[in-house]
Amino acid sequence: MHYITRIKQEVNRFIEPEKAAFSPRFFQAFPGGYGEGDRFIGVRVPPLRKIARRYFREISLKETELLLQDPIHEYRLAALFILCYRFAKAAEPEQEEIVNLYLNNLAFVNNWDLVDASAPHILGAYLLARDKEILFQLAASGNLWRQRVAVLATLYFIRHNRFIETLQLARQLLQHEHDLMHKAVGWMLREIGKRDFKVEYNFLQEHYRHMPRTMLRYAIEHFDPGLRRRFLEGLV
């Protein structure tokens, strides 16, 4: 517990009461919100990253796992940054250990910022050259955060010009009920379009009339205004 105590003490130096009051609303930690029950102390991302960089080589994976299980949101985010930095420097056996730790603790990766900060850099990086069936299992889980992990993990693939899994997951989740998934899928389609416009265009041409409006808007955000308008008006 030595490093956990030190990390928490350092994180606590950056507490901002106004942010602590704002974060539960922003991350919908109120009753009925997608982050219901989460607790915030009000620390911004840059100091959390800086602290994680300072300790990722020293803290054990077991202690990092305990930090990831903390009820305080910012401590969990710091733990995820530690795992990301550690994974990037680790040899394959330890990378596998980190991925297993991550998958075993997805219950604590339970808001969009926690998912987005970790899924591409841990799960996506690990699966690039491996079997990707776990992503489709997560997508079929019915759990919002596991589904977002599946989609966001493919951002790492997209950055390596591999699009097939993202498109398969987009089809699987096309009729998802939550706007956080609409945004995630639309975002990934937009990222594909930055690298291969034709791939994104062909996918949208087939599916845009049936996808949620938010998903479409995210996907076409960087399109030429005229083409964007044609998609929004159903004229493509």
Describe the structure in your own words.
The protein has 236 residues and is mostly helical. Helices cover 67% and strands 0% of the residues. The longest helix is centred in the middle third of the chain and has 17 residues, at 73-89.
Sum up the structure in keywords:
236 residues; mainly alpha; globular
Q: Average pLDDT value?
A: 98
| Residue fraction in strands | under 5%
Q: Separation of termini?
A: 58 Å
Could you tell me the radius of gyration in angstroms? 19 Å
- The parts where pLDDT drops under 50 for at least 5 residues are none
Order of helices and strands: HHHHHHHHHHHHHHH
The main pleated sheet reads as: none
* Number of helical stretches of at least 4 residues: 15
The share of residues in helices is 55-70%
Shape: globular
What's the total count of β strands? 0
Structural class: mainly alpha
Please write out the topology.
Blueprint (H helix, E strand, L loop, with lengths): L1 H11 L4 H10 L18 H11 L5 H8 L4 H17 L2 H13 L7 H7 L1 H8 L5 H7 L4 H15 L5 H9 L6 H17 L1 H11 L5 H7 L5 H8 L4
